[in-house]
Design brief:
Blueprint: E1 8-10, E2 13-15, E3 19-21, H1 37-48, E4 53-55, E5 59-60, H2 80-91, E6 96-102, E7 115-116, E8 120-121, E9 127-130, H3 133-152, E10 157-162, H4 167-172, H5 187-190, H6 192-205, E11 211-216, H7 223-240, E12 244-248, H8 264-273, E13 278-281, H9 287-295, E14 300-302, H10 305-309, H11 313-318, H12 335-338
Helix pairs in contact: 1-2, 3-6
Length: 354
């Protein structure tokens, strides 16, 4: 048995293997935030092809925090049944379903009153104002209620999206956070919103409901200081009982096509510093890459673009395929807007039907 096939016991969840499909936005959702048949088909295909843990694309916790028109919603009880259906499909194959929840902050669509951690100018002559303390507390409650709905749907856990310049990551990172109140300044303050959300979820859903967190392992600002901040935050996550931390980075979309294991060196140092289960996403394109990640002490591997190109990537590489077909062209970020239902240049269009 290859190492990636070995099961892994996390806090309150037993993963059937070491493979995660991270939160990849499908761009298949309807304009009112529902999953079409193509979304369920995607999950069924991944689960049937030995992807042991599947994380949904990021789901909006608030109607003023949606990142794109095709985003799946989780900000009202009416959305619970679609997550229940997705969970049943995935779990029927022996895989786990984790729902990622997110707020877009100033990246929100169809919102005139844009908000951010701190006030700042945006593209297209727009500006974002700083969130008030009352608004921050409301956002914390939005995340907590979203997690409750995920639990009611029968999903196996929830993941907080604190990466890729979405709102939670902007609190953490001094690139964006210039606040001088209880949510700014020290890393203790900048991490406060995440800690409050985690505590609220545990109070609402019980201490045994698995919580994952996705976070950038680096930053474009003072990266050396940020690494020390990461050690602090990971220590807090361990104390809070986080089941798994998924490490990404700020510049994955700008990496050269032949680059591999973008964040492994930093991830290995962080895993050595804090004994907390972690997964790594970014530039993993072969079985050898996966084995290198696990050999570095990282507990799981997260495969985004390779599984967009080949949902059956895992059985293929275990059977001897050398590497993924994915060429890191990043067309998967623009194809859905040009050709709805098409996510990869190497795959046929999905049938999109509500």
């Amino acid at each position: 048995m290859n190492k990636i096939e070995e099961p892994l016991q996390l806090a309150h969840i037993a993963c059937p293997n070491r493979v995660i499909r991270p939160a990849v936005q499908s761009f298949l959702g309807t304009t009112d935030g529902h999953m079409p048949d193509a979304e369920y088909d995607m999950y069924a295909e991944l689960a049937a092809n030995r992807v042991g843990t599947i994380i949904s694309g990021h789901c909006a916790v608030s109607p003023i925090g949606r990142a794109n028109p095709e985003q799946i919603n989780i900000f009202a009880d009416t959305y619970i049944p679609q997550f229940r259906k997705a969970a049943e499909i995935i779990q029927a194959e022996g895989a786990h379903f984790i729902v990622q929840i997110s707020h877009a902050g100033p990246r929100a669509v169809d919102v005139d009153d844009l908000v951010d951690v701190s006030a700042r100018p945006l593209k297209k002559n727009r500006e974002a104002r700083a969130l008030t303390l009352d608004e921050i507390r409301q956002i914390e409650q939005d995340f907590i209620r979203a997690a409750q709905r995920v639990q009611q749907a029968g999903a196996d856990g929830v993941q907080l999206h604190a990466a890729h310049s979405y709102l939670l990551s902007r609190f953490i990172d001094t690139t964006f956070n210039q606040r001088t109140d209880a949510y700014g300044g020290s890393i203790e303050n900048r991490f406060r919103i995440v800690e409050n959300i985690v505590g609220g979820i545990q109070a609402a859903c019980g201490p045994d409901f698995p919580i994952f967190i996705k976070i950038n392992s680096d930053t474009k600002a003072d990266d050396a200081a940020y690494e020390q901040d990461m050690v602090y935050m990971l220590g807090r996550m361990k104390a809070l009982g986080i089941a798994l931390v998924e490490l990404s980075g700020v510049d994955f979309i700008n990496q050269p096509r032949d680059a591999r294991l973008y964040y492994l060196e930093r991830a290995a140092r962080l895993r050595s510093a804090v004994d907390l289960p972690m997964s790594l996403v970014g530039g993993i394109r072969s079985l050898a890459d996966m084995e290198q990640v696990l050999a570095a002490g990282i507990d799981m591997v997260s495969l985004g673009r390779p599984l967009i190109a080949e949902p059956d990537f895992i059985p293929k590489v275990l059977a001897g395929q050398e590497k993924a077909k994915c060429v890191s062209c990043c067309r998967c970020f623009v194809m859905p807007h040009m050709h709805p239902g098409v996510r990869c240049v190497l795959r046929r269009p999905r049938r999109v039907k509500s």
